[in-house]
Every structure is written in structure tokens, then in C-alpha cells.
């Protein structure tokens, strides 16, 4: 990635027109599409299964990320890979055998991502950077869109930036939650390369294209 990419989350999309919403986000200039998969166990919300992702695969040529906010991600990995997700993101908090889970994701031919909640230290990923393609710093408590950005996470982003730069690996740093025109620059300056945006794009009064352009200008 040579410039920060805005990743479009479809969590707050119009589910009656999901394919069209994915196509609109693609046309609006997001770099990737993120599917917030929730099981109402790990987080207090229930969203998409792999069939929904597969149904939208043909509406965009963008890279799909599956953000698995689920208590047991391992049984779901192959299905989301088959649905067309190129990156599978599991939560450190739900993977007691994280090293093995990451190997399974790569064995499926997908990029391996780990997300950490606001209270989870980077120690969980410190020794796995060569097994990883992406680390997601949650800047909200997962479960819902439209929440406030937790600015104290910028210290964690900066710590991860330093860790990755010193490791010589190519791990991508993504920030997820509460990204808007005012918070995007702060997250980017802290070291993030991918910024996940849901409500700031989907609920923007001037439409998705204007919203994405605004976020790109915020980090230019
Ligand atoms: C939280 C979700 C959200 C979503 C983006 O569980 O992960 O962060 O992707 O939602 P906004 O951009 O509305 O915070």
C-alpha cells in the first residue's frame, strides 16, 4: 500500500440492497470491502454468514475482508474463504491457539489478520508477526457501527507501527471503529495504513463518493 486505503464496512448498509451497496462503495473509491461477521456471543450483535458474502462477490472486484467477531472462528474459515474473502481477520481474544489458526488461514490461500480489542495488549501478536499479514487495532468496542473513536488507542497504533518497522515484516496496520473526517488523520499519523469506515461513508449526507473523497483528503 503506498497510500492509506479507506476500507468500506457494510455493517450499516441497506441490507435490502446489499449487492448494490457493495457496488456503490466500490464506485465511491474504497480500497477494500469489510464484512463485520458477528455471532451474538463474542459481540452483542448478529450479522452476516458466508452465503451473504458469496451473494455479493459478483458486485465488486475489490478485495473482501471478513472480520470474524465470533467466539469460534476456526470452523468458519474455509466457508468465508470460499465465499470470496481474501483476508480473514480473527480476534486474538477468541483464539487460544492463534498460531495454528493463522496457519490454517494461510493454508486456505488467504491473508491472515488478527484484531485486538481496546483492552487487549499487543503482546498477543508480538511473537507472531512472521505468521501475520495484518493487525487490526479496534478503536471501538466491537459490535456496532456509529460508536465514538477511542483516541487512547493511537498509542497502541504507534507501538505496533514501531514493532512492525523493527521486525522487517510487511504486516499491514488497520484501524477499525469511529473513523471519520476528524479521526482519520489522527489514526493515519499514528501509523495506520488501512482505515475501516462504516457510518462515516454509509450515512454521509452528500453520498458515498463525497464521503470517501473527504476521508482521503483528511489523510493526504
Ligand atoms: C464494530 C465494527 C465497526 C465497523 C465500522 O464492531 O467493526 O467498527 O466496522 O463502523 P463505524 O465506522 O461506523 O464505526
UniProtKB/TrEMBL annotation:
Name of protein: Ribulose-phosphate 3-epimerase
Keyword Isomerase: yes
Family: Belongs to the ribulose-phosphate 3-epimerase family.
Catalytic activity: D-ribulose 5-phosphate = D-xylulose 5-phosphate
GO MF, one example: D-ribulose-phosphate 3-epimerase activity
Entry-linked PANTHER family: RIBULOSE-5-PHOSPHATE-3-EPIMERASE
Gene name in the database record: rpe
Pfam families: Ribul_P_3_epim
Cofactor: Mn(2+); Co(2+); Zn(2+); Fe(2+)
InterPro entries, alphabetized: Aldolase_TIM, Ribul_P_3_epim, Ribul_P_3_epim-like, RibuloseP-bd_barrel
SUPFAM superfamilies named in the record: Ribulose-phoshate binding barrel
Keyword list, A-Z: Carbohydrate metabolism, Isomerase, Metal-binding
The keyword Iron is assigned to this record: no
Superkingdom assignment: Bacteria
EC identifiers of the protein: 5.1.3.1
Signal sequence, start to end: none
